[in-house]
Design a protein that fits this description.
The complex is a heterotrimer of chains A (255), B (382) and C (81).
Chain A: E1 6-8, H1 27-41, E2 47-51, E3 66-69, H2 75-85, E4 90-96, H3 97-103, H4 105-113, E5 119-124, E6 127-128, E7 134-135, H5 154-157, H6 163-167, E8 173-180, H7 184-202, E9 207-213, H8 217-220, H9 224-238, E10 242-246, H10 248-251
Parallel strand pairs in A: 2-3, 2-4, 4-5, 5-9, 8-9
Antiparallel strand pairs in A: 6-7, 8-10
Helix pairs in contact in A: 1-7, 3-4
Chain B: E1 4-7, H1 8-18, E2 23-26, H2 33-45, E3 49-52, H3 56-68, E4 73-77, H4 79-84, H5 86-95, E5 99-105, H6 121-125, E6 136-138, H7 143-160, E7 163-169, H8 170-174, E8 176-179, E9 206-207, H9 214-234, E10 238-241, E11 248-251, H10 254-269, E12 274-279, E13 281-283, H11 287-293, E14 299-304, H12 310-318, E15 324-328, H13 337-349, H14 358-367, H15 378-381
Parallel strand pairs in B: 2-3, 2-4, 4-5, 5-7, 6-7, 11-12, 11-14, 14-15
Antiparallel strand pairs in B: 1-8, 6-13, 10-12
Chain C: E1 5-9, H1 19-23, E2 29-31, E3 44-46, H2 56-60, E4 66-70
Antiparallel strand pairs in C: 1-4, 2-3
The chains are: A alpha/beta (255), B alpha/beta (382), C alpha+beta (81).
The complex binds thiamine diphosphate, iron/sulfur cluster (3 copies) and magnesium ion (MG).
One iron/sulfur cluster is lined by residues 9, 14-20, 44, 61, 63, 65-66 of chain C.
Chain lengths: 255, 382, 81
Amino acid sequence: MTTPNLVYERPEAFTDAPTHYCPGCTHGVAHRLVAEVLDEMKVTDRTIGVAPVGCAVFAYNYFDTDFVEAPHGRAPAMATGIKRVLPDRVVFTYQGDGDLASIGMGEIVHAAARGENLTVIFINNANYGMTGGQMAPTTLPGMKTTSSPNGRDVETQGYPIKVSEMLSTLDGVGYCVRRSLHDPKNIRLAKKAIRMAFETQVRGLGFSMVELLSTCPTNWGMTPVNSLKFVEEHMIPAYPLGDYKVSDAIKQIKI
Amino acid sequence: MPKELWKGNEAIAEAAVRAGLEAYFGYPITPQTEILEYLSRRLPELGRAFVQAESELGAINMVYGAACTGVRVMSSSSSPGVSLMMEGLSYIAGTEVPAVLVNVMRGGPGLGNIAPAQGDYYQAVRGGGHGDYPRIVLAPASVQEAIDLMVLSFDLAEKYRMITMMILDGSVGQMMEPAEMPAMQEIRRKDFKWATNGAMNRERRILSSIYINPPDEEITNLRLLSRWKEVQNNEVRYKEYFLDDAEIIVVGFGTAGRVALSAVREARAQGIKVGLFRPITVSPFPFEALDQLTGQARAFLVTEMNTGQMLDDVQLAVRGRVPVEFYGRTGGVVPFPDEILNEIQRINTAPIAADSDPRNAWLMRMTAPHSSPLPEGEGAKR
Amino acid sequence: MAVKGWIEVSDTYCKGCEICISACPQAVIELNMAQLTPKGYHPAHTFKDGCTGCAICAVVCPDAAITVYREITKVNTPVTA
Ligand SMILES: Cc1ncc(C[n+]2csc(CCOP(=O)(O)OP(=O)(O)O)c2C)c(N)n1
Ligand code: SF4
Ligand code: SF4
Ligand code: SF4
Ligand SMILES: [Mg+2]
């Protein structure tokens, strides 16, 4: 029962555990939005999460759902295995950009191409947070990381991978959008997108992914608040927000 | 059920279906592709899950995911593909979920060739994936045995929450033999206390292979080892042929064991007191049975289709008490019974020092200019 | 008159990241330098009146540390069956 004058409280789909994330890291916001959506859709008891290797490796401690923990990059394959034998469960992966766009590129592309009815929450924070801030496939050109100390040199280190744009070319994909977690308005839009992604899954409308531009204050060497500004000023121009693919059937969904 | 003519790989696939296989994930590779092809037709027909994965890496992680839900799940591959699965196998072992894998081994290392070989014995039995974990490994020598062991694989994997791997080679995989299929088992999803299948009316569950606190990981490794003790105590399987009065004991698994049996029969016909010991579980290895046989044996002859891998295990069992000799063909070459017969005759007539290194001695014979079974001149060149 | 609201910041979850402070449209949040959470952070708190209960702070908080309340001006008539 909610108290009559309560406006906002911690989602029920969360456990009581405080997260291990650094102060101000928007991994936490992404977690909270997923938990809120699970609450709204009342699917917590039939949801199985797949945690990645990356800072979100302990995601299983925070959601009050069944959870498994995948090898680095393999979450979409594990999720495929689960969903194929339990098609009536809600299965989601939560993956970082190193996990999804580097070591796990094969798994994500093929899960999407097969149109697996999964939801992928993809955290693009432009680096390998967990291992101390090395260059990721998503690191911006010129951006300094511990393994691109002079800034990412596209001549020798290649160009950022735009995952949403890429995956949206695949016919198996029902819903594929990019959102950002840098301000209240965008966080609300991100939550709507996460809701749509899960709705896509429960309706069996194909693969769904929400890419979320996220911060890594610790490895970016910025305060949490300045990190949000960095997302707005530098990440969004490189990774434009938008709906990369929303199939017609999904456009009809009213929530 | 009456006997029918079955091709090894297809027999394995059908046996798995009858054992209650609910999901298969695999990737094409010779010489096991018939398993994948057969199941691509058979499983959807029964409303069960089949996915041709993007790679063996994908396949084994799909197996991992499905295994976490507690259903009977498997993959199959051949040597290079199994190498790619090692990451997943280690995670599956660390998470203590049951999974079944078939390796139809081929000549290696590297891309090698598609001919029958047993070079993956170490990988299967000793290690492969990182970390400290046991696994059950079964080695059939005929189509019927492959069928029976396939069914057993699922039971063992479930009972011990452990990887069960069946290793065979293309000659068993491609062989046509009359065999009897087991009856079709109904799918009964068991209510495992660990399965992550949705927290409906129960506490939520987590399955992972992470123990961030080293003492917890140590406890886990000890738990795995204790469970392995149980497997060692209860699940050792082997077959004995002509061992009652045997003084020379040939030891071989799978196809090498099968070929050796022909040689042993011929040697018996010549009056040599020789028998065959064929391990069926190469892991857990039948150390105790071989230990006891050491009392009656004058010498052991290990035959393998590799450069002497199970040889190590036989030597561990024999512990230098009597000579152990080795004969192998490798790289996809299958020995003829005559070659093994020659070895038996040699051991029967010439005494061998107990402390000689069997692998070195074999290598010398293989590469000696005159006695080598390799093509003319090849022995000397190498 | 503006709606009156208030927030509660949980000591268990708040990591003093200041994101809520910069997001609050009423600028009523600051870190409480006189207090330390069990984890050693200065937690956020409202230091003056003016909270409207808009929940923007809760929306941006990465640690779900904030509960937001709003004063009810109109009394709800109990629903009778
Ligand atoms: C096979 C393998 N290779 C490398 C690692 C080391 N590793 C752990 S996390 C990580 C990077 C994770 O980065 P990302 O996916 O971007 O997640 P983030 O921490 O930024 O959220 C790496 C390389 C590993 N655990 N496994
Ligand atoms: S290292 Fe970066 S991504 Fe990881 S928790 Fe800290 S701030 Fe977040
Ligand atoms: S945003 Fe949350 S964690 Fe950060 S200071 Fe405010 S209440 Fe604390
Ligand atoms: S509810 Fe709104 S006004 Fe009140 S503290 Fe939070 S952000 Fe500020
Ligand atoms: Mg990252």
